[in-house]
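Thread: Modeling a multi-component assembly for a lab meeting

Hi all, long-time lurker, first post. My supervisor asked me to bring a structural picture of a complex we are working on to next week's group meeting, and I have zero experience with this. I have the sequence lines for every component (722 residues in total). Could someone generate the structure of the whole assembly? Inputs are pasted exactly as I received them:
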Amino acid sequence: MGEPRLIEISPVTRVEGHGKVTVHLNAQNEVDEARFHIVEFRGFERFIRGRLMWEVPVIVQMLCGICPVSHHLAAAKAMDVIAGVDQLTPTAEKMRRLMHYGQIMQSHVLHFFHLAAPDLLFGFDAAAEKRNIFEVIKEQPELGRRAILMRKFGQEIIEATAGKKIHGTGAVPGGINRNLPVERRDHFLSLIDEMVDWAQDAVKLARDYTMDNGELVSNFGSFPSNYMSLVRESDGALDLYHGNLRALSSTGDPIFDQVPYTRYHELLVEDVRSWSYMKFPFIKALGPEAGWYRVGPLARMNTVSHIDTPLAHAAHQDLKTVTNGAPNHSSLANHWARMIEVLHCIEKIRELLNDPDLQGSDLIQTGERREEGIGVIEAPRGNLIHHYRVDEHDQVTYCNLIVSTTHNNEGMNRAVKEVAVSHLSGQDKITEGMLNHVEVAIRAYDPCLSCATHALGQMPLLVELFDSGGQLLERRSRAA
Amino acid sequence: MTDNRRDSSFTFTIDGVEIKAYAGQTIMEAADAAGVYIPRLCDHQGLRHQGSCRVCTVKAGGRSVSACTQPAAPGQGVENETPHLTKMRRDLVEMLFHEGNHLCPICEASGNCELQAMAYRLDMTDATKFPYLEPCRPLDASHPDIALDTNRCISCGRCIRASQDVDGKGVFGYVGRGIHRRVAVNGDKLADTNAEVTDHAISREVCPVGCIIRKRVGFVTPIGEREFDKGLIGHEIEERRT
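Re: Modeling a multi-component assembly
Sure thing. I ran the full set together rather than chain by chain. Output:
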């Protein structure tokens, strides 16, 4: 019997932003507690106060370099309301949707191929130097090439709609500042069929992984939870840009359904814990113990009634058969769900590119000013809520952001605990590969910790083993 | 320009290029007419010359002078784009960035901003030479149609001259001395002044940065169609050169 130990994985790698994991082992080497800590603090909700309302969609997107479009659009939707605009022009709405689909596609592709694929292809406990995108490219050059070109396609869609691939200025309160020139449309159309084919192959890759590793996927970070997302107002279909809120229990029963997102604060409460800068939201009606929920690609596959694009719909039905139509609780099934959404986004992009409204010139609407606006969108990582109040001088007086990774906070912590108990308990020697299992569980949620804490710096991996008195016993490090 | 002045034309050189000038013309006026660009920030067409930013400093007869205020002289040899002057100008522009809070990625003037455009023209790639002063200046959004973010002010005084000389109002003026000198409004806040959004002083062309803000039009010009998306600052003057 040894001494109680504390293992720290800091920072967690191949995620966006900075976080760490602590695992507390007792004298019998069993996991007492495992937590995912977010150690950055950014404070956007506070320093946006006083800024002018039309600056907000441009400023808040600086929360993130991976999914800035989500923040840009959620803020723009809130500012539409404040600008008194309830209905955008067809060109504005479709340009924004095009931007959003390009964004989700590129973000999901980045996550699956660049961040998660090394674990899935080489194994969770493969040599650390093997688990990176360069090894993926070396061993499967065609896969690597597609990963890069698919992401490029999504980023070019963003550039065509927002002016820049990262941190553009397309959406303004009441509309959009550009349309899509025919030359750009024709360029994208010349590539779209290949993108559809590649996305179908990516769905197959993720599906095959899930089916070939059924036992692992079913047991690794798998636990029941509630799920929440936007769904389309008319029929509950997947709608990543706009809709109403739907939450389902772990058995698929509705907790609330088709609730306008402007009532989010009646439904959700954010809890605070002393050991993390990230809040813990829960469904008010169920309380903090039973009311936590998950969001994101798999959550959306669980909540939506169907998908309105044929190829993605078929893939969704295929995913649902694994659990006989019931909610899928496996953290690793997020990868399959993510690729289905890539396919859906590309189908949507194709649909939009063939719509002449994208070449319209009626771009911005005006209306009667309001004081408060809420904008909600389905970001790559899940539901994203932006809520603002603006005074008569056009200055922001209040800002509340609930980002996808925050919604998933409890879920990620449960996944960390579950995997830590399964893979670290009872082990005398903790290897780097074992610790990577914990990171794999976190990565399945594609967390964006920068967004969640509303980082700068390098991203090395430092694992330190302490005794219960805080004495450093062992240190392993990996260069950035 | 009177016929008398036309009659009194003469030539001088800028970086060895012969430039035609008339009596009373500044070095910058003659250079502009000839299609030779001399960088400047506080000078603006239609406003009286001030010579305060010193970005237009040239060497004339071995002396450093501001091209916007120094009259051209017959036969004079003027140095403009020398490595020494370019470095000095770059340092001046860098210091302007460091004195204020110039956050280009979130500023609605980005792409139309003369300070940003000048940094690009002067190849200002190292922004860490001087310490950031990071002032904390409140935003004045009290006026229904205009806002003032003096975090971005470079004290060029163009708004002061435009308001006094063109609008006949005196909305803006300098307060403070030395490094603390800054542009302020004639009242506790902008809403207390007689400023109007149609004033020349409020127009986009007068404020070279994003300090004077016309409300509710920020970011409506898409990236790619902003003024300096079309070319380096000064390109319009240089295109006049035959």
